[in-house]
Amino acid sequence: MRNHKLGFVEDAAISCFMFDEQYNTFQRYGYAADPSESVGNNVVGDLETMKRNDGASVYNIPPHEHRKRKAQEKEDEEEDDMEEEVREKADDPASELWLLKNRKSPWAGKKEGLQTELTEEQKKYAQEYAEKKGEKDRQEKVELPDKSSFHGKEEYDYQGRSWIVPPKDVKATNDHCYIPKRWIHSWSGHTMGVSAIRFFPKYGHLLLSGSMDTKVKIWDVHGSGKCMRTYMGHSKAVKDISFSNDGSRFLSASYDRKIKLWDTETGKVISTFSTGKVPHVVKLHPDDGKQHVLLAGMSDKKIVQWDMNTGEIVQEYDQHLGAVNTITFVDNDRRFVTSSDDKSLRVWEFGIPVVIKYISEPHMHSMPSIAVHPNTNWFAAQSLDNQILIYSTRERFRLNKKKRFAGHIVAGYACQVNFSPDGRFIMSGDGEGRCWFWDWKTCKVFRTLKCHESVCIGCEWHPLEQSKVATCGWDGLIKYWD
Fold first, then answer.
1. How far apart are CA 394 and CA 406, in angstroms?
2. What distance in Å separates the CA atoms of residue 403 and residue 104, rounded to the nearest whole number?
């Protein structure tokens, strides 16, 4: 009669040891003694295996196993009796005793399954990779000749004046700045995105632009509105450009790891500087007496200072924990502020490689662009959390929590921030091609202009014509607004 789904089940008194012995014997050999049969030797399972093993359970060790265990115990005793020195020799793979005991190394013999030859597919991939790597190395080693081409009508006018000389009638018409409303001109000559633009110092009659197509171009702003000269010498995209105080020379920094000093008028390269790292920002010292001092923020976390007269590195400012993005002189050019990918601001005394102020908060983001207010009391920092922060240039370099400019989307882009010459407006490009204008006093958005199809990376206010602004973008265009 069934009392379980598997059949008839009845209680049986059996010790734990007996049960474990029979259970493990059944698992190991496939047979076991039936505990319900108290009389006789009734077995369930594989009878043939039971006859072969002479009915031994897992706990009944066969004689040969006994002998093996005794031999092992004897060997262990002998090893214990060995002297300490002999034991050390036996454990030392360099000794003869070890060699005698271990005639065959555990990893001796040829392992099977190891692939000795490459398959056709692997050979093809390796060849492609080698060609690709060789081509990349060749591109890096390519030294492009430094050359320049003039596109204007003539380099000197009838009076013998150079084409870079500012017109006599150029002067500020009004001290009051106005926000531009319309697009009045476009300069198109770069085949790839424009990364930076700079107006000619003080006069703004020429506009310099650096592009990802490796070229630097200078454009006429007041006259024909055409490209005046193209400077070619870099083998990779141009990252940053910077004029000297008088505009007769300018610096260009490129991803080919070189910084070049050009003569604006003739287009000749005066000097080339390199540390083997990518320069992210280049600056000449703003003081007229120190125009031979070059500062460059590098990808290896250093700010390097060159003396351009000798071509030697005279100082290295090495405290940042990430690539250096900006260098901004403050406090009558005695100090400079640097920002970096390490999300901090550091203030340095010029010429002394010790940080005098370190600004880093948990909520801070990287600040890829900084501009000083015309009154020199404040500087604006473009923060990658879509806001512009204002810091004091005085001793404390404190964050001005009352002034914060937001609304634009710049996360992931090093969009330039800038001020109007009278300091009433602050402006910035954004990642969607717009140019934003805020009122400095109220911090409210004054106007937005849709300037470019892709990122509006740079914006510059004309130094003399107070309502005119130039913008550049990754669509390869430079636009002029009034």
1. 24
2. 79
